[in-house]
Amino acid sequence: MHGYFRARYVNIRRVPVGRLDSTGTLASEVHTGRDDASNGHFIYSRLRLDPTLRWGGNPMAGELPKVALNAQIDVLDNVMWGDNARQTGVPLFAENPSTTGIDGDERPFLLVRRLWMEVTLPVGVVRLGRQASHGGLGILF
Fold first, then answer.
1. What is the pTM of this model?
2. 30-34, 38-42, 63-67, 112-116 — most confident range
3. What distance lies between CA 54 and its chain's CA centroid?
4. Which of 36, 52, 41 is nearest to 2 (CA)?
5. What's the gap between Cα 38 and its chain centre?
6. Do β-strands 2-16 and 37-50 pair in parallel, antiparallel, or remain unpaired?
7. Mind listing the pLDDT tens digit for each residue in 88-106?
8. How far apart are the first and last CA of the chain?
9. DSSP secondary structure, 65-91, as one string
10. Residues 6+ apart with CB under 8 A from 120
């Protein structure tokens, strides 16, 4: 089993929150003389798991397994922390937080990105399933 957990904090300063008039100025600037801008900040994260189930072969001796089942699974992929869909009155104490992504849409809780099987034959390795695209040194791309 391999994988990682990643959390990122984003702080965006001076995001305009008012509406623009016909000249391109914020409507609140015309009437109040102050810039109606705000700061936006949020945290989002991902848990990626790369499990592998192998049968046969000896990894200590450098032998490939005869059969291997590989997967790449993302849990809460790029989901913002907290109750962003306002499902509860007090988001801090949300019992079931929403799975809102950084684009504002709901994301699946669990996503199986890749799942493939490898069979080692005397002439090479046969891979079946949804797997990563590998273009060598980039020559194919």
1. 0.66
2. 112-116
3. 27
4. 52
5. 26
6. antiparallel
7. 666 556 667 778 888 878 8
8. 30
9. PSEEEEEEEEEEEEEESS-TT--SSSG
10. 56, 57, 64, 65, 66, 67
Give me the residue label for tokens 């199986």. Answer: 112
Q: Cα–Cα distance between 34 and 25 in angstroms, integer?
A: 11
* CA gap 121, 68 in Å, rounded: 12
C-alpha distances (whole Å) from 24 to each of 16, 20, 30, 74, 80 are: 12, 5, 11, 42, 32
| pLDDT exceeds cutoff 60 at 39 | yes
DSSP state of 57: S
Find tokens 């809780």 and name the residue. Answer: 109
Q: What does DSSP say about strands 2-16 and 124-130: parallel, antiparallel, or unpaired?
A: unpaired
Structure tokens at 120: 């080692």
Residue type, 55: W
How is residue 102 annotated by DSSP?
T
Q: What residue type is assigned to position 62 of the chain?
A: G
Sign of the torsion angle spanned by Cα atoms 115, 119, 120, 123: negative
Residue with tokens 């089942």: 69
